[in-house]
UniProtKB/TrEMBL annotation:
Pfam families: CEP19. Belongs to the CEP19 family. Coiled coil: none annotated. InterPro entries: CEP19 (IPR029412), Intein_C (IPR030934). It is found in: Cytoplasm, Cytoskeleton, Cilium basal body; Cytoplasm, Cytoskeleton, Microtubule organizing center, Centrosome, Centriole; Cytoplasm, Cytoskeleton, Spindle pole. GO terms for biological process: microtubule anchoring at centrosome; vesicle targeting, trans-Golgi to periciliary membrane compartment. Keywords: Cell projection, Cilium, Cilium biogenesis/degradation, Cytoplasm, Cytoskeleton. This is Centrosomal protein of 19 kDa. The keyword Transferase does not apply. GO terms for cellular component: centriole; centrosome; ciliary basal body; spindle pole. The gene is LOC113075415.
Amino acid sequence: MSIVAKRCGVRFIPPSIILIYENKNTSKTRKRVIPVRNFSQYSDCSRAAERLKHHVRHSVYLESVSLAQLERLHLILRDHLKGLSLEESLAARRASDPSDEDLNKLSDEELNRRKAQMDQLFERNRKHKDDPDFVYDLEVEFPENSVRETCSWDEEPSDEGF
């Protein structure tokens, strides 16, 4: 059976993942409601997403859905169980900008998850020598008018104290 996921979402009561998918064999679009059982406001979302993705009954349907997307949907469900509205939950996801985050303060499990996401992004953006737009030894000229930060190391050394 060839299944391609089109859209994913959540339903709060009862807690469920909603999957809109297309069966390529029949060219029909269908909806699947996947209940999220044994899930509370204290549950580990990454573990729950992984368990759901590899579940015997649902793995065929969730094959084309990334683990990261399933985890985000579980985070929304968990936030709802904590009493947050959908808007508050989505705003919290947008506010956590990964570029400003201190990775030293994360737990080992969370750090490994972030590293896996970075590796996945790197592989997606990586250029291979067989790619049609691959350029060997690419040289780029940067404009001189760009803002340069100054550093005390950039100053000329004085003979004082040395």
